[in-house]
Amino acid sequence: MQLENKTAIVTGGNSGIGEAIVRRLASEGANVVIDYVAKPDDAADLVKDITTAGGKAMGVEADVSRPTEIQKLIDSAVHEYGRLDVMVNNAGIEKRHSLLDADEESFDLVVAVDLKSAFFGTQLAAKQFVSQGGGGVVVNVSSVHEDWPMPGNISYCVAKGGMRMLTRTAGVELGPQGIRVINIAPGAVATPINTKTLNDPEQKQKLEDAIPLGKVAEPSEIGDAVLFAASDAARYITATTIFVDGGIMQSSVGL
Ligand code: BGC
């Protein structure tokens, strides 16, 4: 059990990659705290699944684009389990638009959910780690698009690019306090965010042809990488990104 007696918060934990991360961390003994806004039933089902299997998990109603609600999530975790050890800033959305088509409302929404939540999630978790002592780990789930332009998805790229520098800068600032900050950057993953592409046979084929490992990732493959980043096995890794993309960023086959 790599995370026995550790407590982890996973934002956006009730669907897609987040759900796989929750299941993986819980299977290694972590107490897992999940936020929810829109789908309380999904969070409740997931918590039930984990507790039935002998794990520990709880859901908290919190909109992670608001720092006060992230604080509520952290306070609930500490109240229930005594301390916080791992903060996974995973919540993310995308709104497909180009620069010329973007409007203020959807730009603000993408940046608030993807970047602002990770920024304050990192800050508030770090404050908790410092006050309780003993260090901690922040894992930010970014994307290959933290470094790789995706025309037609510009607000998402801007937010993920911001996460890249958040992790590098926060990792440098927090290293002396024993706090590690790592980005896990998935490529294409079989989750609701990619449903449209994966339901279109032509687009799906194009995507798979561009991936050297020949297939879209399963969410569990990202969950495994987050577990590694959060565990002691990654104790000398900080202020950087681990790409989990089947090689797509290095591929010369265009999308
Ligand atoms: C995006 C997907 C995209 C994938 C690979 C992900 O971060 O959410 O829409 O298919 O990157 O380009």
Describe the structure.
This protein has 255 residues and is α/β, with parallel strands linked by helices. The chain has a single domain (7-250), classed as Rossmann fold. The chain is 45% helix and 15% strand. It has helices spanning 16-27, 40-52, 67-81, 104-132, 154-174, 195-199, 201-209, 219-230, and strands at 7-10, 31-36, 56-61, 86-89, 136-141, 179-186, 240-244. It has a seven-stranded parallel beta sheet with strand order 3-2-1-4-5-6-7, sandwiched between helices. Beta-D-glucopyranose binds at residues 94, 143-145, 150, 187-188, 193-194, 197.
Q: What would a concise description of this structure say?
A:
This protein has eight helices and seven strands. The protein has helices at 16-27, 40-52, 67-81, 104-132, 154-174, 195-199, 201-209, 219-230; strands at 7-10, 31-36, 56-61, 86-89, 136-141, 179-186, 240-244. Strands 3-2-1-4-5-6-7 form a seven-stranded parallel sheet, with helices on both faces.
Molecular shape: globular
Report on the biggest sheet. Answer: 7 strands, parallel
Continuous helix count: 8
Order of helices and strands: EHEHEHEHEHEHHHE
Bound molecules: beta-D-glucopyranose
Main-sheet strand order equals 3-2-1-4-5-6-7
CATH architecture: 3-Layer(aba) Sandwich
Structural class: alpha/beta
Number of domains: 1
Radius of gyration: 17 Å
Q: Quote the beta fraction.
A: 15-25%
Helical content (DSSP H or I, runs of 4+): 40-55%
First-residue to last-residue Cα separation: 40 Å
